[in-house]
Amino acid sequence: MINYSTLVKKWAEQLTIYEQFEAQALIEWLLEHHLGLRRVDMMRFLEEKDLPQALWDDFNRLKTGEPIQQILGKAPFYGREFQVSRDTLIPRNETEELVHLIIKENPQSCLKVLDIGTGTGCIPITLFLEMNEAEVYGLDVSASALAIAQKNAEVLKAKVRWIQLDILEEELPIRDLDILVSNPPYIPEKGKAKMHSNVLDFEPALALFVPDEDPLLFYRRIADLGKKALKPKGKLYFEIHEDFGNEVSDLLLQKGYREVKVIQDLNGKDRMVFGQF
Length: 277
Hints:
Structural class: alpha/beta
Strand order of the largest sheet: 7-6-5-8-11-13-12
EC number: 2.1.1.297
Helix content: 25-40%
CATH architecture of the largest domain: 3-Layer(aba) Sandwich
InterPro entries: DNA_methylase_N6_adenine_CS, HemK-like, N5-glutamine_MTase, PrmC_N, RF_methyltr_PrmC, SAM-dependent_MTases_sf, Small_mtfrase_dom
Pfam families: MTS (PF05175), PrmC_N (PF17827)
CATH topology of the largest domain: Rossmann fold
Binding site for substrate: 183-186
CATH superfamily of the largest domain: Vaccinia Virus protein VP39
CATH class of the largest domain: Alpha Beta
Number of strands: 13
GO biological process, one term: methylation
Number of helices: 10
């Protein structure tokens, strides 16, 4: 029989693709999900052979590199839980910062907002729930991703209008936007070599990668679409690759956007770009 703390450390040592502190956090998350146990239960004693089979099954999946969010089918975002699948990116802390920035900078009521590349719907759903009577749309090329987004909206009681559309081939069916936001694919193909298998093998490449020869592909297209869809003084918010802050900023300036700025995340990395049309 071992106590909770010892079990966490023992199992975390088997998650070799993660740093130790991250591995321990994942095991704690798994134990809380299956057993209702948290860090406060450090001295509680457990018999490994009595642990439920479902917990062992999920632990073995975790050891393969499968993200815990996909194992459990949910991920936290801005204080809420969102359903996830292999058809959607897992919501990340940096995107929470993007959403928080939009909420903080736009306290007005009845703004019209579109999120391009919506995935789980975490951005438009959160904006609908946190902003003042906003009219919110979420767009994605993937029907499977939109199905997940729609389920999340139903569970969280968010009135978001969903659009399936390929922005590289089609024009936006919406005009007079106050805010256009996007966390588009932005990782060059060559970046795969530096990525963990838990991302490469389990998250959709469609939502991650862009050609090495044109890493700003989606930013350029969305900036062009924004010029037609945004109201005068409408706002464009991007999440970006940390290496491309200056390039995206210059792109927006070339396209005629004003008040352009690069914004760093809490880790001091270039993470967001803002422009006003």
